[in-house]
Write a structure and sequence with these properties.
Blueprint: E1 12-16, H1 20-32, E2 36-40, H2 43-53, E3 57-61, H3 69-79, E4 85-89, H4 94-103, E5 107-110, H5 115-125, H6 133-139, H7 149-162, E6 168-171, H8 178-187, E7 196-200, H9 206-214, H10 230-234, E8 239-243, H11 250-262, E9 264-265, E10 274-275, E11 279-284, H12 288-293, H13 299-305, E12 308-311, H14 322-337, E13 343-344, H15 346-353, H16 360-374, E14 379-380, H17 382-391, H18 399-418, H19 422-429, H20 433-442, H21 447-458
Parallel strand pairs: 1-2, 1-3, 3-4, 4-5, 6-11, 6-12, 7-8, 8-11, 13-14
Antiparallel strand pairs: 9-10
Helix pairs in contact: 2-3, 7-8, 14-16, 15-17, 16-17, 18-19, 19-20
Amino acid sequence: MAKKNRVKKSPRILIVDDDCDVLVLFSKWLKAENFDVVAVESGKDALAQISIARPDLVVTDLIMDEMDGMALLSEIHRQNPLLPVIMLSGQAKIPDAVKATHLGSSAFLTKPIEKEELVIEIRKYLHLSNNDEANDVQRFGEAIIHRSSKMAELLEQGKAVADGDITVFISGETGTGKEVLAKAIHEASARKDQPFIGVNCGAIPDQLLESELFGHEKGAFTGALSHHEGLFKAADGGTLFLDEIGDMPLDLQVKLLRVLQDFQVRPVGSVRSIPINVRIISATHTNLDRAVKAGNFRADLYYRLNVVPLEIPSLAERPEDIELLLEHYLEKFALKKGETKKVFSPDALNYLMTASWPGNIRQLINVVDLCATLNKTSVIPLSMAQRALGNDESDVKTLKEAKHIFERDYLISVLQLTKGQVASSARMAGRNRTEFYKLLNAHNLDPSDFRVIVEDEKK
């Protein structure tokens, strides 16, 4: 039976513009280049066609009645964060271009536009002129060791969003390598020669985090002995990675949202704002959907950060990668120490491949280092692997967890000393009553419980 020749499907382009003449002209240009074209006159119609026609790329005008290009772009990327969108405007302003690229626009072009320029941009973002696309995906994230399909799919998504300024949100358990993925995205972007700066929002005390991010002027507060530019300014032109964004206090979330809207920062103690050009990649191991519902994280900031969500699977979800990772880190350890590479015995390898790895890659690295350091022979036995995994410090609490426990214990001590009197407790803790009540609510503590205890003791 003869095989049927499969006809290669032409890429489908959705054009959105409330000017009929523009629709006719662009349709004519793109059809001549063998594109399949769908043209609509409004953002509302465009959203309907995305579900029906499933375009490979969208070209939209910025200034339109009812739903403008920015609103359309936000809605498109809420539904399909990987769909390329080219924004056009005859009244282009730099802030519009910056905002569009961070919201997910692949390109921001000005009208009038020549046919060649439009076609080149479309082909660029559909990868039609790139014969090395498969190699590009393979090269992307070389530091992320994997053979699993889950990780391959994640890296394909990371590569797809790297070339641009679209805001990326990475979720995953502690130790899965969120910063490694963020660096890979930065290094595959046009910003690769500019700074990549990471900051753990949960590791910096709340009162210092604003200064670290936005900077401060000399004398802005006690201890501010000199001007400090802050991490946003330090990352100007590059990428700022905000790790554990879920730990950021609510009052600072408001200020971060303003920065993401205006792309300007105002240092603590300053009366003027400074323009910044920074790509934002954020990450967390916590469930921000739940945090938003609980009122602990602002919904508007979450939507601004969560333009393209990427979720890193846990090590338990990618067991086929464990052997490869063990081999890689044994080799890395040997090179670092200038020693012959050690290997795990078959039963030790089987034991490690079936372990649950709650600490993920970070825990695996600790186990490899401990085994390679303590074992004096070239073959690491099962007993050593069991010892390393059993003694691994993955159960050591994170800074956030330790801080939570200390804060709760402190509040209990203060309430016991004041016999549940909130005014006295707040004064002792150096907080006002409102702040103190918030702390009590965060730890599910009721002052009346401590008053009852005192009354019972009197009886």
